[in-house]
Every structure is written in structure tokens, then in C-alpha cells.
Specification:
This protein is α/β, with parallel strands linked by helices and about 250 residues long. The protein has one domain: TIM Barrel (Alpha-Beta Barrel). Helix 5 runs parallel beside helix 7. The radius of gyration is 17 Å and the shape is globular. It binds zinc ion.
Length: about 250
């Protein structure tokens, strides 16, 4: 059996979620994976750790357990820029994500809203999405891009190949490679294999994430692990901050 870290993205009791850290630890042990908790830390997401003070309490609580201490930060939100260095240094690793992308006009398109600010085609959206992703990769000192293929609700049902053309896949993979950010195979928002294969072939590190918000979902990385192995990724090369380090250490 595997013994991999997994970014549970667990919505623990810190963000008013259903799970306690103890439950996440127990569940991970039962699935034979090493737990990594990465609650959402943002001013702009419901039920998130939403202030510097709350992030301090969150990290202090995680330090009581044998878990990796992660956090998922929204690129479009300011909270990740506000964390003081001494607090950043207490994270074992950090994740960045696009819960909103910025349009050239300055407006935001949120991932979990159906409202679009004006008539926007899927091509317009994807162009802006890639621009935001490239900016995230340049700006954010994170180790992992969470759920890399998540797009806004209005376009989420479109065929993967239409949204993620090979040219767009190329842009994403190059941005991650240049910044040393790992590609997460999310169990919740599963990427298509062609894209993951492209990332692996370019030498982008792979990370496994359950993005689990309930006891049944948390720490379940069976499908992402199977995909990584199918593409020839060795278990020891799957992102583990204990083995591969983290950008948080640079600031410690
Ligand atoms: Zn997320």
C-alpha cells in the first residue's frame, strides 16, 4: 500500500466545516496515506480561514498533530500577501488556486458563480484564465496549484478538449515548470489525462489531492495516485514537502 501525503483541503472545524483535525488524521491512517491539511485561507471564500489571526489559530491547532500543515490561498484575494513571515514559516507547504480570474477590464469571474460580467465567450474566458494562471505562477510563493483545470461554473460542462486546447495546456505547463509549482491531480476536479501527461513529460512535479470536504471524501487519493502511476510517475517523486522541501522554507 502507498504511504503518500495528501492534501485533504479538509474543511476542518476552523472554517466551520464538518471535520475535526483528529477525524482527518484517523481517516488518512485508515486509508494508509499521510495526512496533509490544506484548509482554504482567503477573505473571499465562504467558510474559509479568513484573517491573519484565524490563520495563526489554524496553524497552532495543526501543530498539535502529526500532519503536514498546508493552506490553499486564492490568488485574486489579498490575504496571502498579508501573512507575516513568521507565520508563513510555520506552514509545511502552501497551495495557490484560481477561485476567481481577472478579466482584462479588471473585473473578476468567480469559479463558483454563474454570473458573468457581460457577454463573455468560452475563448475570452480561457484567455483571461490563462493570463491569471501565468500571473499566479509568477507572483505566488506556492508549492502546488490546486485543481488546475477548475473553470467557472458557466463553462464547466463544456468538453475538456474544447476548453483546454493543446496550446492552452502548453501555456499552463510552461508556467508551472518555470515557477517550480506542482500540478495537483485533484480527486474532486479531475484533470484529463492528456494534460497530466504533458505536465509529467515537461518535468512538472505531481501532487495528489483529495479536496475532500466530508469524512468519506477526505484523504481519498486512490484515483489520482492510479493516474500518476499510469503515467510513469514514481511514488517517491510525488510531491511531499518532507522530501522535496517548500518555498515556505525560503522565507523562514
Ligand atoms: Zn479550491
Amino acid at each position: 500500500m502507498s504511504w503518500q501525503p495528501v492534501d485533504c483541503h479538509a474543511h476542518t472545524n476552523f472554517s466551520d466545516g464538518a471535520l475535526t483535525i483528529a477525524q482527518v488524521v484517523e481517516r488518512a491512517a485508515s486509508l494508509n496515506v499521510f495526512p496533509s491539511v490544506a484548509d482554504h485561507i482567503s477573505h473571499d471564500v465562504a467558510r474559509a480561514v479568513d484573517s491573519v489571526e484565524a490563520a495563526r489559530e489554524y496553524i497552532a491547532a495543526l501543530e498539535e498533530y502529526d500532519v503536514l500543515r498546508g493552506g490553499e490561498f486564492c490568488w485574486h484575494d489579498s490575504l496571502w500577501r498579508e501573512l507575516p513571515d513568521d507565520l508563513v514559516a510555520r506552514f509545511t507547504h502552501r497551495l495557490g488556486s484560481l477561485h476567481a480570474i481577472r478579466l482584462p477590464t479588471g473585473g473578476l469571474v468567480h469559479a463558483f458563480s454563474r454570473r458573468l460580467p457581460g457577454p463573455i465567450t468560452p475563448d475570452d474566458y480561457m484567455w483571461a484564465h490563462l493570463e491569471s494562471l501565468e500571473t499566479l505562477a509568477r507572483e505566488m510563493p506556492v508549492d502546488i496549484l490546486s485543481h488546475p483545470t477548475l473553470v467557472t461554473l458557466s463553462f464547466r460542462e463544456l468538453p475538456t478538449d474544447e476548453l483546454w486546447t493543446e496550446e492552452r495546456e502548453e501555456r499552463m505547463v510552461e508556467a508551472l515548470h518555470a515557477s517550480g509549482i506542482a500540478f495537483e491531480i485533484s480527486n474532486r476536479y479531475r484533470p484529463h489525462e492528456r494534460l497530466v501527461k504533458r505536465a509529467v513529460e515537461r518535468g512538472v512535479r505531481i501532487s495528489l489531492g483529495s479536496d475532500g470536504h466530508t469524512l468519506a471524501q477526505v484523504a481519498d487519493i486512490a484515483a489520482p495516485l492510479a493516474m500518476a502511476r499510469r503515467l510513469g510517475v514514481r511514488d517517491e517523486d510525488i510531491y511531499d514537502p518532507r522530501r522535496h522541501g517548500s518555498k515556505t522554507a525560503v522565507r523562514a
